[in-house]
Amino acid sequence: MSYFETIKLALTAIAAHKLRSFLTLLGVIVGVATVIVVVSLIEGFNSYVDEKISDLGPNAIVLRKYSIDDFSSLDTFQRAQRRNKDIKRADLEAIQEKMQTASLIGAQTGGGVELKRGDETLTGVAIAGRTATMMEIQRLEAQQGSYFTSLDEEHKRQVCFIGSEVADRLFPKSTQVIGEEIKIDSRVFTVVGISKSLGSAFGNSRDKFVDIPLSTYQKIYGSRRSIAVYVQVADPKKIPEAVDELRALMRARRHVNFSDPDNFGIITTEMISNLRQRIFGTIQMTAIGVTSIALVVGGIVIMNIMLVAVTERTREIGIRKALGAHKRHIINQFLAESFFLALIGGAIGITIAYLIAVALATFTPLPTRLPLIAVGMALAVSGGVGILSGVYPAWRAASLDPVRAMRAE
User: Fold this and answer.
1) Is the pLDDT confidence value at 250 over 90?
2) What is the pLDDT of residue 405?
């Protein structure tokens, strides 16, 4: 008997008992759907983190008041709060003067402000005081105009670079915005550039922002707030060397003893990726462990139904063996039936998971992404469960004595 005939017989047997087949597959459907939904959410979060890493800039390291490890627990953070000092303008100037491995150095700080133009008011707008070099470090692109310059920063000019949403809201009918004025917390600023759209993350727009020179920001809002210093390295292989140099420079400036921990934080893209892996890797393994229980239960149900099928079709098996069917033909038929049962369940589970992922992405701020490799693995696993579940029933069917089998009612 050819493989085509085997598959045809298996699908015919499944179609003959549609309701029983569907109920048999519930465990596989639930297990596969759960795994795929979890994977799509994790991949969505990974994509978001990759975007934030991209925002950090290529080959960039960041000096901040706190490190990633300072947020590992409340006690650790409270100790860091007591120990860590603010990063000040003087630290930026010292790094600019002494650091040898850096190709570009910038800094930023920020908060929230209110913007006004005429009768239009925008609240909760993110403001960043930045050095002019931050445009190149973070690869910002202008839709109109340009970023402010180092000369603007040097003279503390009241100029700004705005996000595309800010431009659309404050200048709904204007095609030429450059040179126009807006009020930032009641202070007049001149628009020098508009950013290309950055989209949204977790339902929050990334285009609702305004950048001003760091010196202007500190003149208006004071210099007591800690800043973040960005250091870009020309060669990615020199990032560890740059981290060591920056750490040594800051420890020397702050007279930190050899045995004492850093009282500042240095963040690299590798640290962010490792943190993501620790968080999402644990979630993914836990999800797979929990949902594997559903797959095991589904596999047991498939095995029981296949044993019932063997009992129901004992006479049919006996007739086929009497007509010359070999043991392997019987085994192939029942293995194909259990395989396609589980495969169909996996396909239904993937379809349900895809619809759930689309709904989450559409109606909630949660990002989702479904990679094709996850779909392929889900189908492979569900098919594998089907084959394992069908081995014993198939062997039992193939071992039936044809004479006794034909006597069965």
Assistant:
1) yes
2) 54
Containing structural domain, residue 116: 106-231
CA 144 to chain centre: 31
CA distance 17 to 261: 68
Same domain, 368 and 288: yes
What would the pLDDT profile of 154-210 be if each residue is shown by its tens digit? 999 999 999 999 999 999 877 789 999 999 999 999 999 999 988 776 667 789 999
Q: Could you tell me if residue 373 is inside a domain?
A: yes
213 and 307 part of one domain: no
Does residue 182 sit within a domain? yes
pLDDT tens digits for 354-375? 898 888 878 877 778 887 887 8
d(CA 390, CA 14) in angstroms, rounded, equals 14
Same domain for 111 and 224?
yes
The dihedrals phi and psi of 104, each to the nearest 5 degrees, come to: -155, 140
For the record, the structure tokens of 286 come out as: 């836990």
- Check if the beta carbon of residue 336 is closer than 8 Å to that of residue 6: yes
What is the reported pTM? 0.71
- Residue 120 pairs in a beta bridge with 117
Angstrom distance (rounded) from CA 181 to CA 202: 31
Overall domain count for the chain? 2
Is residue 94 situated within a structural domain? no
Distance CA 33, CA 349 (A): 4
